[in-house]
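Aim 2, interim progress: modelling of the zinc ion-bound target.
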Amino acid sequence: MSRYIATRAIRGATALVYEAEQLLNKALKELGPDTPVQFTNTAYYLPVILGLTGIEVAKLGDMPKVLERAKALLHPIPKDQVWLPYLGETLDSGIATLFAAELIEGIRFAYGEQPEKITWGGKIAKGGSFTSPEFEGEGGNGGTLNGPIDDIQLRAWGIQLVDGRMPGFAAIVGCAKSNEVAVEIVRQLQQRNILVFLSGNVNGRSIIHQLMEEGVELGYDTYTVPFGTDTLSAIYALGFATRSALTFGGMKGGMARDILLYNKYRVFAFVLALGEVDDLKYAAAAGAINYGFPVIADTVIPQILPTGITSYEHVISMPFDEIPGENDLERAKRLVQRCIEVRGVKIKVTEVPIPVPYGSAFEGERVRREDMRIEFGGKKTRCFEYLRMANFDEVEDGKVTVVGPGIETVPEGGAMDMGIVVEVAGRKMQEDFEPVLERQIHYFINGASGIQHIGQRDIAWIRISKAAAEKGFNLEHFGKILVARFHADFGAIVDKIQVTIYTDPKKIEEWLAKAREAYNYRNQRLADMTDESVEEFYSCTLCQSFAPNHVCVVSPERLGLCGAYNWLDCKASYQINPTGPNQPILKGKCLDPVKGYFDKVNEFVQSASHGSVQEVSMYSIMENPMTACGCFEAIMMVIPEANGFMVVSREDPSMTPAGMTFSTLAGVAGGGLQTPGVMGVGKYFLVSRKFIAADGGLKRIVWMSSLLKETMAEELKAAAAREGDPDLLDKIADERVATTVDELLPYLEEKGHPALTMPPLF
Ligand code: SF4
Ligand code: ZN
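Predicted structure of the complex, ligand included:
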């Protein structure tokens, strides 16, 4: 049977390589060889080509040599009688197809034809939108699709991919049997937190059209990325896979074998081909098989069963009439289940007994005012949440109580006060874990489709959509969600849990006062906690699955560079999983209190980095700085001319005075290596007393992304005052005033920036 696939894949590859050649010749003639070629917001050129060949395609003139590589991989199209015993030809054709597809997309970018603009018949369904920044505001019945995923987003997802919260991705190509089936497939994947990449069409109709018509919110926030409506745009999925290996796996362009193996063993992904499979789709599927990604089709196609390239079957066919009498939705569910089984990863789905779909993919969903049934908190009402430890006998496990009126007492679009009080008991529970667990309420509640949760503590703000309310979602379900998730995710420290939802005004007053007392107490306790006040720091090696030699050392005054793990988080995580990635490190002897050297920390890092790092200083960037994986929230780099450092945030796409954008800098900062003068940091480290204390602290910062200045204004101001320079923030330049050293220096002079008169860094 593989002969049939080989024939079609070779045919598809040959046609596409030919098409790429025609297009390239035309583009070279019309635009010229020096015309730049660039995918948006990535530092990885055409990533599949970079990864597999090492060739950096930056202009059209760089393309012919890639085309030659693609041609060299083509095989003669076999006659029917010829028996092809190996997968080799199919695989070669796959790679040739990927090269040709990426070249064509590159050429389209050169012509300004990508990302794709689309329009669709009929009106966009209510609430339907595509939430890419370009699309915002366009509305109506058209917009710009996503095109390739940018580096910023890849890194933002990094930590979730690393820690397994996001198991991997599904590349869906084609068009589902019906809109209803399209929605069901995507919802099933979202509920498992699997990223969904959408591309392709069948006779001009794409699953992207189907989802938009049904009002499914597409975009990074909901884990659903519409690449484009043709098959070629599926190349962006493999570009994403390749960049994962380059970004997190520390691999370099040209390490084809390593990159493909990395994906086979570490990236959980599969292709789901919906509808008829033509030659090009066969050829593209052959490309995916090279990455170890199986292809599952919902039509009758020949199967390729295991031979060692994918861990399981390479190509699976699951036609519609397989089980007589099965309805379309049941079958859609089974299709997703089959994909997951074939790829062979266990995915834990927590059963949450509520009337709407549930999963982290719904965390980013927004509920607009016009789609809202009711809100709690925000401008008009109050909403707070409070989690506290209680004695075993005070907690009735699983009990959810609503005290006060329900949402039916409030007219549509209205608001009411609410307080969520969670009481947990557990043998391993500690008071210190209260804030760690309380913070989870945000993620847990947001996981429900049609529910939006913003903020925490007494500034929580929750909305229930009309759609969710119509399905029966009510107050009690907040409690059900929390009970299910705390048991599932924190079972090691939470033995019993009960939840009370207060809407009764008297009770709200009473509990809000108790909650505020607890918040204050915790603030004080955290503020009092210093590196000196504890005996142990914690390691985090979670990112070693992607960056094998990287270790974060997390102390009370220095959080992990991803921003997601502080000292308390690590401590709680150690309790939950004593053999996990967060281990206590007894500080041992302090060798240098200023630079932050501790003998046991050094010992730990030596062993955990497999000897690649000998010493680490906790408070210096200039001497043995901490290494970085790839998920840093911000990157710092020395600006020698200014006698200081700049900090660029992950969300900032602009050029920096270091002559590099965040994406380029990330290549310098990551990979688990120590580079004095360059360091990845969690953004809250900036306001710590220990922030590069050995190099002069916050006063050394001469440039900072405006986004950081704005989103952390209060905290930065307080830290500046503490450092003895309350106006420091105004003296620090940003991308609005300087993107080069030449622009930076006069600004610092004019503002009298303290770094200029500090001791020389070199
Ligand atoms: Fe990765 Fe460090 Fe964050 Fe741990 S703390 S998840 S190692 S970046
Ligand atoms: Zn990381």
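The chain has four domains: 3-111, 117-343, 360-513, 531-757. Residues 159, 162, 543, 562, 629-631 surround zinc ion (ligand 2) (CB under 6 Å).
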